[in-house]
Amino acid sequence: MGVTLGLALLLLALLLGIWATRLRRATGLPWAPVVYRDTGGHAPEKPLMAKRIGLVGRPDYLLSVRGSTIPVEVKPGRRAGRPYESDLMQLAAYCVLVEETSGVAPPYGLLRYAEHTFRLNYSEQLREDILAILDEMRDALADVDCERSHDDARRCWGCGFYEQCDQALEASEE
Question: Cα 50 to chain center, whole Å?
């Protein structure tokens, strides 16, 4: 009886190990220690703050990969074959935050969609691009005559300024 139970438990452990390995591979993310996570079912981590450049954010994960801290942004509802530019810019901002808060630039960041993982190589040029975009955003916020930058009614409806915006799109414009 003891041998049978031992073999059954060993078989169960083997099956669970195989299942866990397949599940991990399906995520498209590397096997690496998670050093930060800001996902559901978990007490939120403190945001990364770079006061010098006025940037704050919470990546979904920070992984420790070969001595580097890699930001990961997960968009589980996206099924696109190519990453959205806005998602790449969000990930690039997280790369800047990692560099600013740790003093070491990550070599890349990972963007996970439902079926694909995209790698964004982080470079000095990308950093400069993000800082320029941040400056443009600050200028736009200070501009009282800022123009709407899209024709997507759903984005308008979700905007915090929808009720007071004179350029808001109506439901009939969708």
Answer: 17
Q: Which two tokens stand for residue 74?
A: 């997960």
Nearest to 27 by CA among 95, 110, 91: 110
The structure's pTM equals 0.72
In sequence order, what are the residues at sequence separation of 6 or more whose Cβ sits closer than 8 angstroms to the Cβ of residue 138?
A: 54
d(CA 168, CA 157): 8
Which residue bears the tokens 């990453």? 83
Over the stretch 59-72, which tens digit does the pLDDT of each residue have? 998 999 988 999 99
φ, ψ at 148 (rounded to 5°): -60, 140
Start-to-end Cα distance in the chain: 69
On whether the CB atoms of residues 91 and 111 are closer than 8 A, the answer is yes
Residue 112: both structure tokens together: 């996970």
CB 44 within 8 A of CB 38: yes
How long, in residues, is the chain? Answer: 174
CA distances from 137 to 72, 108, 142, 163 (A): 23, 24, 9, 21
Q: How far is the CA of 3 from the CAs of 7, 8, 9, 100, in angstroms? A: 6, 9, 10, 57
Tens digit of each residue's pLDDT (9 = 90 or more) over 63-114: 999 889 999 999 988 999 999 999 999 999 999 999 999 999 999 999 999 8
Helix (H, G, I), strand (E, B) or coil at 61: strand
